[in-house]
Each structure stands twice: as structure tokens, then as C-alpha cells.
């Protein structure tokens, strides 16, 4: 039987243990998996495009477990009350090829994106960072806030979003987090004085929401929203002056902020910092950028954690037949059916 | 909510309507989809190999629906009571990217493989074909038998398998089909006098189980088992003298019987015969070969049929969140959880 973790199962489980503890555990899993990055099968995502959206499959494997995520991107979905991006995923046993777990991944992707951001910031930001600017108060904003509060020690968040309803929603959701929250009237006002700048807007196209002149020395930028071809959020003058860190270079050159730069623009992969192969932040004055686009290994880590936490719990699905004789599929499954009378 | 069709759901549904009617409906769906072959997004399957097996994802889309199949191949599985090949699949709405259906596909793949064989034979075999040789009495054998009886009018099957237990299992399962069944002591004896030769063995490596001299003029060969690199079942002298038909040429050149031939070996795709763009069998004396490897469009047709037949029935899974405000994922899913106390 294959374990099923639905939206209700996952939100109950995360709610019961508390999202902070879940994020902390997930960062541990990410750290383990980034430390053995070279073991993973890293293939390009497989995209099926239509005029109004995309459906992608993102597989990876460490040789023991295999995972893939199904994820769509449909910017017009909110007009009919649906989500722009939804996802689900599967974790399988490489030894038998049998699926172990099917899980919802809309909520899980939000958690893994925030956990990956906090993981990267822990490697790259100044440890004394306390104030975070949050540009964009959409679906990802509360997750980023919790992760940075819990794992980085952020105590104050200054939020900016051109949509007052989004800011209000954010303030309501984050009001119980135990942080100082402030709404700013512009990107510049939000960023001013921040140690960490998290940019997670849904605005399409080449934007330059944040530019170099807005930043104080030593800022770490957590750039979430520049995550597909043609969509960026940072002025290129930041990239020209920063140390830029990525997940998987070939993918980020196409999808990330660095699509603005040439193909030889120097970047460092996070796993290289994790393993000590290359250094992270060079000094307390440097601008560091995590150019996040999301990679299959992070989904793998998240599914691995859910599988460990849900062991023995949740629903079971009969997705794969359990048969006595592998040469006999017909007998056990259709042997009792009406097969005698041929339609003449 | 996403519809779930498990092994029990599917075998109950097919058992109740009768596998013959299901196969007939599936051939109708295949015929519709092969007739509009050029509309489909045809990408290579994405394989993750390990030393003991492979896990593959096979996506396709017609622009309105999207499907993918997850399928493994692990030859060592039967030693631990598991199936060598299992599968499940997903059908989605291209307009929103939302999954409509998750279905078991181990049984469904057996049905679709048999239906595709019968569909191809209906296009290519002599209509007066009545006797079928069946080489290999494994998991696929009863499905092939039912499909050819129902859709081609086969009345007699002569089976050969070197494993007496497999032949016994086949005879038991097929005893109620209303056919004349005969076991032969060799491939040559089974093939002698047959109008159609179905070859579906699990033997690995380059085999030449059937050769040209065994065949009477006008035979149609339904070659199922040569379906991965390094695995073939026909002597190349058959291919040299036959009209060869395939599903999707680039894939069949790597996986099918024609991997024995050069890259320019002439083949015809089934959809070209379906649409009348190219002709099928040239005369009643020709040897025709359907070099079957299985393609994503056939899985698409099968999932489309299951979705239509199961409409409103079966279990529902909360795979995708149903939210009021697409910018607020946190509130509805984790708003009630314990977020206030930061771990200091």
C-alpha cells in the first residue's frame, strides 16, 4: 500500500508539531541533502507548455530514494478562485521502484521554499541580522517570516506590498508570531536599515524593485520571486556588486535573477559552501544574494521528512497490486469477471 | 478534489462491465487519439536508472488534457514477491493545471497494451485471421488473447512457454474465454499455421525466437516483448522481409525489434495508416510486424477512458488546497497552529 498525505493530513501534522519545529527539521534535512549534493541525479525539469500555463515534472534520486514533484503554473487561475501554483509529489524506493508516499505539495512547497531561504541565509547572512525587509505580502510571506524568525533570529519585519489587502492579510496572519511588524509605504522605505531583504513578489516581467543604492553594507538578499524565464526582481547593479549564490547553476541561469547577466557570470552553488569546498560571505560589508528558483533536491528533502514524520499514520492507497504470482495479473484481478461470451 | 482509482476500483469496474467491453471501448479511444496524433506533445520518457532497475515518467498532452505515467522496471522484484513492472498515472486539466485523476496503471497498462495490439492488428492483419500463436504465457498473455478474440475474431490460440507452470496458469485463466486452446511443445510448432503470431516473453537479451522460415505467407506479427534496449525476440530475417509498423519511430529505434536494423530502416507509424496518409498491408501474402514498445499517447487514451467511465464514482483525495484567497495559503492551513512562541 502507498501512503497518502493530503492537504488536511499535512496541515494537521504541521499545525500539531508547530510550523517552527517543522521548518527547523526541514532545514536539518536540507542541510544533510545539500552536504551530499553530488550523489543526486540532477536532470532538467520536464515542462509541458500551453498558451495559458505550464505543467512540470521535477524528478531526482540519491540512489536509495527517488522523488518527483508535479507542479503547475497558471497565472490566470485566481480569476476562477484557483491557485496559480499547486503541486503534489511522490517518494519511491529505488530498490523496488514501488512508490512509498504520495503527498500534497502546495503547502509543502511553501514550507520548503521558506526553509531553503533560511538555510541559505544561515550560511550567508551576517549572524547578527535582526531586521528583515519583506517585499511582497503574498502566499509565501508568512512562511518566510516564520523561517527567518526561527532560524536566523529576525526580530523585526518591515513589509511592503502595493496591495493593501495583502498587507492586511499578512499583518493578521503574522500578528501572533511575536515579532515587531511594520508596514512601509515604498520598497525603499522597507529596505532602508534592513539586514536581510526578502523579495517575493508575483509581478511578471523584468522588474528592478530593489537597487544597489537602497542597500546598507552587509545586506543579505533572499531573492525568491525571480524564478522563471523573463521574471526578475533585482536591479542588475546589485548583481554586479554582490556575491551570488544559487542552487543548481544551469537551471538558475535560465530562471533566476542571473538571467540578466552573461553566461559566464560567476556564481557559487550552496552545496559548495555547505561542504566547505568554497567560501561563503567574504566579509561583513559584502552584499550576498541567494538567487532562489527552487530545485528538485529540496522537494526530495521535504518528501523525505514528511515520510519520516508520517510513518505508520495517514491513509493507505491500493496504487500497486499485491499479487502472489507475478506472472498472473489476470487471474487475481479479473478472473471472476464475465469473459466467456464473445460479442459475435 | 482529485479522483482516485485504485487497483480494487479498476478491477471492479472492468470486471463489472466485462474486460471485452472495456477493451473495445479502449480501442475506440486509441483510434480517436491515433487519428489526431499530430496534436500530441511527444517528449522522450524521463528515466532514472539504478544498478537494479529504472523508474520512468512518460508525459504527453493534446492541449486540453495532460497525462503522465510513472512506471518502474525491476527484474529482481519477483524474488521478493513483487511485480517487475508496476505503474500509476495522472490525468490533468491543461486549462488550470489541476490534476483530475490519479489511477493505478499496472492492470490498466496490461489492458492498454493488449488493446493497442488489437488496434494495430485490425489495421494490419488479414481480416480472415482466426488462429493465433502465443509465444509467452506471462502476465500479458490473457489480455492479448481476450483482445484478439474480441476485436479480430481469433477462434484458436496455440500457446508455447518453456515454463509449464505459466502454460497451466494461462490455460486455467483462459479456459472460460470460449476459444479453442492448444499447448505446443516448441515455438515452431506453435507458429506453424498461425495467422497471427503474438510474441510476449520476458526473456532478456537478443533472442531470435521466431524466424522467417517458420511463418506462412500473410502472417501478422504482434511483437510485444522487444521493448527495451538490448531486448529483442524476432530474427532479423523477418524484419528484412516484412512491412514494419511502429508507434513513435525515435523511441522504437532504441527500444524495439528494429534496434537490430540500421537507423534508416524503413518503418511506417500506425497513425499514418489510421489517417490514410500511408498504406498498411500491401497484399495478402505480405508479412506485417507491429513492433510495439508502448507510448505515452496510449496511456493518455487509457486514462481518458477511465476518467470518463468513473465520472462521479470512486474516492476523492484532497491533493490540492481549495482556498478562498489565492494569496493566503498560511491562514486557512496553519492559522490555528502554535506560532507565537519563538524558540529562543
TrEMBL record, chains A, B:
SUPFAM superfamilies: NAD(P)-binding Rossmann-fold domains
Family annotation (InterPro entries): NAD(P)-bd_dom_sf, ODC_Mu_crystall, ODC_N
Pfam families: OCD_Mu_crystall
Highest taxon of source: Bacteria
Family: Belongs to the ornithine cyclodeaminase/mu-crystallin family.
Name of the protein: Ornithine cyclodeaminase
